Amino acid sequence: MWQGLTLCTILTLGGFGLAHLPGLAESGISPLVFALLLGLVVGNLPLACRLSGVAQGGLQFATRWLLRGGIVLFGLSLTVQQILALGPRVLLLDLVVIGSVLVIGYQVGTRLLGMDRETTLLTSVGSAICGAAAILATEAAIRSRPAAASMAVATVVLFGSLAMVIYPLFFPLSGMSEGLFGIYIGATVHEVAQVVAAGNAVGPEALANAVIVKLVRVMMLVPFLLIVGQWWMRSQPSDGACATGKLVIPWFAFGFLAMVGINSVVNLPEALHQALVLAGQLALTMAMAALGFETRLEKLKALGIRPFLLALMLFGLLLLGGGLASQLLMD
Question: Which of 60, 206, 213, 328 has the fewest CB atoms within 10 Å of its CB?
């Protein structure tokens, strides 16, 4: 156990170190992604075969329990008051964006591009809800292959980074007010850090609205997990392994809701609040490091370019369709 957790800790520290290097700190790429990349590199070195045996217990603990614990503590980033601040139309906008991206993404990925269901779902979730955190939570709910999750995270990094450049350039051409454009950013950009970077580049009002709308999108992760767990179980082939009828309930989603509730009604000391948030980030980053370590490059190669084609199509849908929806529902 301790060998795997030590390995995850080293990769996590490396991920945080890279994320804070000059030049990389301004990129908006989170330590989770750097930890995944470091894990991917180390996991494909010749010595990884010897490490895998002794580290397996700790790696499984990270991808299972640390992942769920990190999602629970992620709830401390959101309050009910923030959700109510912009009114019910924000909730409707987020539902329209998430529902459209998930349905269109899944249909295009599985039917038009011929992708497997796991990679299609995780790629669509990363674009629709909240990037790497949503991918990790969904991976925990459906227990997908590490390669599928790693590929989905790669698409979030690529197109979320592209969004940080394109959105501020698009603002003068959009005809939207700064506040409305912030809502548009929050409803359509992938990661929380990328939303902050894009909103900050537009202006303070855009940044404030973007963060709130993005956090409402994060909140949508809970009902999504409850629905997708049941749908995934029922849509599996009816063989001996899948015909047990076992109810799939992502209990950590309720923990996430509990943390949102606590954060809304209890004024935690700032030091404690920051410590818990950091603990959640560390737990998620260690889970991402373990996921990267267990991903083999040959399996990534087998997935090919199709996940990126799907993510590109979804990026266009978010950029154009999300802008239209923001104006129709919020203006």
Answer: 328
